[in-house]
Amino acid sequence: MAEGRKSLASDEPPAAEHAVVELQDVGVDLKAAREAPANRSSSSFMPKPKVPMHLAFNDVCCYVPAMFQIPGFVSTVKKVAEACASRVSGKREVAPERQILHSITGVVNPGEVVAIMGPSGSGKTTFVSLLAGRNHARHTGEILYNDQHKPTDKAFKRQLGFVSQEDIMFEGLTVFETLYYTAVLRLPRAMTDKDKRERVSIILEVLGIAHVKDSIIGGFRVGRRGISGGEKKRVAIGQELLYNPSVILLDEPTSGLDSTTALNLIHTLHTLAQVGNRTIVTTIHQPSSRIYQMLDKLLLMGQGHLLFYGDASAATDYFATIGYTMPYGMNPADYFLDVASGWSGEPKEEAGNLNATDPELKALLGAIAEKPYSRQSSRQRDIELASSYASTKEVFGHKWRSVKQGEDGQEGGELLGPRYHTQVYVICIRSLKERRFERFSSDSLFTVFFMAILCGILWFQAGVGASLATYVGAGDVAALLFFLVTFLSFNILFSSIFTFPNEKNMLLKEREAGMYPISAFFFGRTMADIPLDTLIPVTVTTIIYVMTGLKPTVEAFLLTMMVVLITCFTAGSLGLLIGAAFLNLKRAQSVATILMLTIMLTGGFFVRDIPVWLSWISYLSYIQYAWDALINIHLKGRVPECQDNACDDSLLAQVKYDDVGVQFGILMLMLTVLRFAVYLSLRFGAKSR
């Protein structure tokens, strides 16, 4: 096996000392990169991490609830009742748990690529998520980075790259835009924009996706076909490689890739580990024999148990010593998966009393317990390296403090990310480009403009002076104004509730990476909403205003536009709040429908006499304030006063001609309160998740 790995190495790029140019600690010699020979690996020009990371995990066990509970109102009430009962009794009931990881132990040194293998359901994803700090299930044991418990500060998050099994990215952005905006939000502020673009170009070349850099990611939500699944996976990996983290954790990065592309990807990871002295751990499903030969260590799992951990080249010989001899010519990775699944071979010894459900796996665990793997050379090297890291702990501590504080004494130093206003600006621009397909789709535009023209036809010239001479005509104008604010409110609200449920995974991913605070995301998205939520209401209102002949003065037109826009912003804020609070599209739509219908029914148009015990709801209806303001703008002083109860049955009988500024001020107050509630919901929602 070692000979095979050696022969494969002959096909690799030149040795690191010949292939790597001198790199700055954080920057990169861009001139050398541009002038490099074509046959030189692009990954050689990636900057080295400032602090290499030594990863150790000892006796890691993980537990999950034994019974799955569907989230909902009933389960919530049940949890509250159980909590109250336990508080009254003074005894806390412990929910039954199921152990899914059993005493996983090992060491990963800088410069190594460790593959976690095992059949489906063996706990690979759970374990790598625990290493990355992305799995918050109850677990025991130790996970140490440089002999310290994993820190939670932003500086460390920027040194840890995690590629999830699910490709999380914005579907409306191009490949280059996806990587570029990630680079701007993650790379140090000391790097120029030119350097960041150059870094993106290098990543595109390294991962072989330069030919699709101008193609959109694509997906169901934007209604457009984009790049392939394999290309999406490489983009996701590229997002983490941009910052050149000290530790890279990947969950099945080769899924969906052809054998050649997968081989190139693993070769890139292997080069990044050796050249950059990085620690790389990846789960991998059925690698080819050529990929297996490139692995430094193998961690084999079966039903949450550790079956083997050591040099990948020694695994075949070890399993042969306990009775599991690999057939000649078979791919070692395929054979080990068969062994971990309890399918292949007969052990020499019978199993003891073990916590495994499959008899074959119990027999395998018994054989392993009877004759554990003696990886003397590998273990001795691990111990020596661990000792060297422990002996240089002060050096690493100094380097880590210098990374966080900066050699020049400035807080954050070279790892300090972009300034706050840059984060807000980038998130705003990214959101504008992402929502261009969603907000201005052909179906959406057709719907609103069709309704605007239909409304103009049905109320054609209803607002001219002659039509207002009668109470019936004035009532028609009042109905038109109510429909205007209601229709636009519905449109904005139901499009806004999709915002945060669709972006929740991206928000959580970027928050875990420490890319920006919640407030930057909130303000950036708010700024992006202004032009997107302004264009359609302004256009629709203008069409209806002209066709229906509403009050023909510039002042009335501008006041109408202001009221319509503030109403749309308020409706959009309510939609954002619902989406942020629930993050479940089906539930959010149900809640939005109930609230919108309630607001509409209490808006003063359909029901005049609301029961006293429900009258307070009308004060929360922003449609009522918007409608009152529009009636004051267009009907005040233009309709004759009612005499002798002549208009008791008219809509105008209950209209109060107040100052428009009062209604406008109330709408502004409601908008401010709703926006603040959206921020709080995002802030505390992100923490709870």
What's the structural blueprint in terms of helices and strands?
Layout lengths: L1 H8 L6 H4 L10 H5 L20 E11 L7 H17 L7 E12 L4 E5 L6 H9 L5 E8 L2 E2 L4 H4 L2 E4 L11 H12 L6 H14 L22 H13 L5 E5 L7 H18 L2 E5 L5 H5 L3 E6 L2 E7 L3 H7 L10 H9 L18 H12 L5 H16 L1 H13 L14 H15 L1 H4 L2 H17 L12 H26 L2 H14 L5 H31 L5 H29 L2 H17 L20 H13 L25 H29 L1
Parallel strand pairs: 3-8, 3-9, 6-7, 7-8
Antiparallel strand pairs: 1-2, 1-4, 4-5, 9-10
Whole-number mean pLDDT: 76
Shape annotation: elongated
Radius of gyration: 32 Å
Number of helices: 26
Number of strands: 10
- Low-confidence segments: 1-43, 70-74, 347-357, 375-381, 388-396, 402-413
